[in-house]
Design a protein that fits this description.
Rossmann fold; seven-stranded mixed β-sheet; 16 helices
Length: 400
């Protein structure tokens, strides 16, 4: 065996070890194969986005950066492998940047960005997302890109909070007219962040209304929105008990988070433990339907609280979501940075129009919220008619 053949054999073994390795959690996306195969790409003068805690299930992300080459770095990229293969290319182009899904990248990624002054952007789903969940490979219609923090993080400012604190909404009459129209469309169409459950007659679960109704919107208790949005330990059952204590004569309705209810995320508290004081919703009810006939909402930091506000329902927040601290909620956690009084429509304009980016999941073109609402309605109507027109289904049919 020649030395050259032996070297190639060892390289192939190391390749298989990297991409086929099952222990220690190292798994790299197949889309990195061309970059590990050749060193020539490093000298190409083009801006690149190095996307951490993204894998090939989020293969749509390059379409959100049409002017850049996106390298999906995977969920567990080791620092040593990055330094050896990618660091030079990142640092050689000042227009390149790091993108992370939430705060989920490895700590060394954030340290690397700080040490070298590399621009870093945090990414999360927007508030009008899809007709299915991300784990169904449903592409989002909206994403939020934030250079300061993330909208659910009350421990520091975010780009959304900066908009809310400083934007002159009164001067932008066109924006506010559009916001009013879009809010009305969302409500009339029964749209939410995720739109996949069939419409539901809540009276079947709630029963006849004989008293005030308080809805507790449950959350995944280990979620980052609670970790970074609440300054004390609290679980969903604590919220239910507080709602009952403050409204002893009301009907308390507790809607656990669907991911917890159906087992895809772990629960901390047991809904059955509060069944003696609350009606537990175990059906897959769309949030817009669940809010019907409700007089007040309690939640920790859920977006469901803001969707209630859009419908004129008072909300008590025990944490500090993006929509609290502006004078429209009953706040049990204060945020000294938020010193301005806003109304619901102004917060809607900021969070749904100025802050996120919308793209057509079929054409990948940038669109406005009006077109996003139209697309969502079309996809939802087709889904409820038994036809899945989402990009994931279209791709599956093409492959088949």
């Amino acid at each position: 065996m020649t030395i050259g053949i032996e070297i190639r054999r060892l390289l192939l073994l190391s390749w298989r070890w990297v991409f086929g390795k099952k222990k220690k959690g190292v798994s790299l996306p197949q889309s990195l194969r061309p970059f590990l195969d050749s060193a020539g790409w490093k000298s190409e003068a083009k801006p690149r986005v190095f996307a951490f805690h993204f894998d090939d299930r989020k293969s749509y992300i390059p379409s959100w950066f049409p002017g850049s080459e996106v390298l999906i770095m995977g969920m567990t990229m080791p620092n040593t492998l990055f330094q050896r293969n990618f660091a030079e290319a990142l640092l050689s182009n000042p227009d390149s940047e790091i993108l992370t899904w939430g705060y989920r990248a490895k700590p060394w990624v954030y340290e690397f960005a700080r040490e070298h002054g590399v621009p870093l952007t945090y990414c999360e789903d927007g508030f009008i997302r899809s007709t299915g969940l991300g784990n169904e490979r449903q592409q989002p219609l909206s994403l939020c890109f934030d250079r300061q923090g993330l909208y659910f993080d009350a421990t520091r400012p975010s780009d959304l909070e900066t908009i809310l604190q400083n934007y002159d909404f009164d001067a932008d009459r066109q924006l506010m007219r559009r916001a009013s129209d879009c809010r009305d469309k969302l409500i009339s169409m029964g749209l939410s962040k995720y739109n996949f459950a069939p419409t539901f007659d809540v009276e079947v679960v709630y029963g006849p209304k004989t008293a005030r109704r308080i809805l507790v919107v449950g959350q995944v208790e280990t979620d980052a929105s609670i970790k970074y949005g609440c300054d004390r330990p609290i679980d969903n059952n604590d919220v239910v008990r507080l709602a009952k204590a403050e409204n002893p004569d009301a009907q308390i309705i507790y809607k656990p988070h669907p991911d917890v209810l159906f087992g895809s995320r772990n629960k901390v508290s047991e809904p059955d433990d509060v069944r003696d004081i609350a009606t537990i919703v175990t059906e897959r009810i769309p949030l817009p339907d669940a809010l019907r006939t409700v007089d007040h909402v309690y939640t920790i930091t859920s977006l469901g609280g803001f969707e209630a506000l859009l419908r004129g329902i008072p909300v008590t927040t025990l944490g500090c979501p993006f929509y609290s601290g502006w004078g429209i909620t009953d706040d049990r956690q204060l945020c000294p940075r938020r010193t301005r009084k806003l109304n619901v429509l102004q917060i809607f304009a900021a969070a749904y129009m100025l802050y996120p980016t919308y793209r057509d999941p079929f054409t990948h073109e940038k669109i406005d919220i009006e077109r996003a609402i139209e697309l969502m309605q079309e996809l939802l109507a087709a889904r409820r008619a038994g036809v899945d027109k989402t990009p994931a289904a279209t791709l599956a049919a093409t492959v088949a």
